[in-house]
Amino acid sequence: MSRGSIEGMPAGPSNEIQLSGLVKSFKGPDGPIRAVRGVDVKIAAGETVALLGPNGAGKSTTIDMLLGLLMPDEGSVSVFGRPPAQAVAEGAVGGMLQTGQLIRDLSVGELVTMMASLYPAPLDVEEALELSGISDISGQRTNKLSGGQTQRVRLAVALVSNPQLLVLDEPTVALDVEGRQAFWSTMRAFAGRGKTVVFATHYLEEADAYADRAVLMAHGTIVADGPTTEIRAMVGTRTIRATLPSVDVDELAALPGVSSGERRGEAVVLHCGDSDAAIRALLSVHPDARDIEIAAAGLEQAFLALTGDGPSDGQPRGGVSQPSAGGLGPEGASR
Amino acid sequence: MTLVYMRYELLRTLRNRRFFLLSLGFPLILFFVIAAPNRHVHDFDGSGISFPLYYMVGMASFGTMSAMLSCGARIAAERAVGWNRQLRITPLSPRAYFRVKVLTGYMMAIISLLALYAAGTLLGVSLDASEWLKMTGLILLGLVPFAALGIMLGHMLTPDSIGPAMGGGISLLALLGGVWFPLGHHGFLPELAQFIPSYWLHQASHVALGGHAWSTKGWIVMLAWTLLLSGLAARAYRQDTGRI
């Protein structure tokens, strides 16, 4: 799979982030929980990479090891040729962790100034507030903010460090749809300065829309790694959904252009490599097919095909259930 | 680079009202209530020092202990909201973090100390300049084990439990140290007291008698507590952060 890299710069440890053979277990009530079971990723400087997977896939554990907050049981991490602790000490890393509120008894502006003072080459505090869209609440006390405002202040704290590597663990969880869009346009502007951005998410649309590349994780391992478009191409590009009560799905799966099919009640869902050929074939054999929808497969479907299982924890993974291309997304509807 | 950080940390602490109540307001009020009616007692319970001096240093011990242990409360609060993790991905080293916390504790302790000195002077405490300085020096030195205790508790307890734990702990330490009332001269309690750091904190008041306020035993006890609590604090930190 291809990997983006900055033109003219040879790939090498000094301009790459390398996670090699990472393994991490935690003590659990029923023996050790193997949170990460062998993760190998290389990220080139300047890339924006999404770490995508359901809750419990090992994303946060991987990110904690990337940031040096956790020591791996096995394997190693190199951030631009340095151990994470050194990269952090040099101010090369900024981050927004998954959980966290703000400390009290300071105004937003004071808090961001306080944090900026710890870094060798911080952004201007005004600029960080501006980028995060919170210039107007600079004077407000940190304990009197809404969830969304708190999240933006945390973003400002991450941005003001002006790091080479920005790491975001589920950054948009507390934001509404509008807030999410604002958040990602900020992030895009920041990545546009040549920064490396790694973010964890279980919102498939976010990985799809904002990352150059998606690393899909499940059960502590990487199940796919590549440009988001490539991942979609790996599992058939479109799905056809139609109401066809009494037809054998296996027969439909054998139609030209169809790679696999499944029945969902009255409806059938066909995963197609060539949906044009498939729809013609389907209508010639079954002209009675109704309620036909053709949609581009979202990453969620790619994800399901790659991991070969549904969400084990029963949590909805789609987040915002916007289909990735017009019409009703076939995925999500009947799980 | 930690100067700006330190400045805001101080500002935060000064804005915290709970601190002022516990380590400033409470000891000041107690001092006036207890010492004012007895301000003419010159030799309190055979200790050789006046009642106001005894209680001034007693309440100062209480206030400064609270100030130092409130480092722990702030650490616990920062851990609870995940701020310590945020700080651990900044260039601020753990050493610098603790330095800032301890210095903040000391600033607050000094405020508490000065307020009680002023109150003491109002009730007739009078010492030579050298005695004031020596006493202050001993108190500040005697707070070192409490700084370590604060850091340790801050990494072991939650913000909900640290309040009662600190309140109870400080009261017990004050009681065993003879801060509330003299422990007498015979029996188990005065023997035990000599192994308690708060006892020696309070003994700083004996500078008024000339000579050394801390005996060799006092220095050894304080050093032993400092080493023990620093070790335990380092362990609590390592366990909390999962660092090997």
What does this molecule look like?
The complex is a heterodimer of chains A (335) and B (244). Chain A is 29% helix and 27% strand. With 335 residues, chain A is an alpha/beta fold. Chain A has 2 domains: 13-231, Rossmann fold (3-Layer(aba) Sandwich), CATH 3.40.50; 236-296, Alpha-Beta Plaits (2-Layer Sandwich), CATH 3.30.70. In chain A, a hairpin with a 2-residue loop joins strand 11 and strand 12. In chain A, helix 3 (108-116) packs across helix 4 (125-131) and helix 3 packs parallel to helix 5 (147-160). The two termini of chain A are 30 Å apart. Chain B is globular and about 55 Å long. In chain B, 43% of the residues are buried. Chain B has one domain. The mean pLDDT of chain B is 90. The A-B interface holds A 67-71, 88-91, 93-95, 97, 99-106, 110-111, 113-115, 117-120, 154, 157, 161, 167 and B 1-5, 8-9, 11-13, 15-16, 77-78, 81-83, 85-86, 88-93, 242-244.
Helix-strand blueprint:
The complex is a heterodimer of chains A (335) and B (244).
Chain A: E1 16-28, E2 31-44, E3 48-52, H1 59-66, E4 74-79, H2 84-89, E5 93-96, H3 108-116, H4 125-131, H5 147-160, E6 165-169, H6 177-191, E7 196-201, H7 204-210, E8 213-218, E9 221-226, H8 228-233, E10 238-243, H9 249-253, E11 258-264, E12 267-272, H10 275-285, E13 290-296, H11 299-307
Parallel strand pairs in A: 3-7, 3-8, 5-6, 6-7
Antiparallel strand pairs in A: 1-2, 1-4, 8-9, 10-12, 10-13, 11-12
Chain B: H1 2-14, H2 17-35, H3 51-80, H4 83-88, H5 94-122, H6 129-142, H7 144-156, H8 159-176, H9 188-193, H10 197-203, H11 216-241
Notable characteristics:
A: 335 residues; alpha/beta; Rossmann fold; Alpha-Beta Plaits; six-stranded mixed beta sheet; 11 helices; 13 strands; disordered N terminus; disordered C terminus; B: 244 residues; mainly alpha
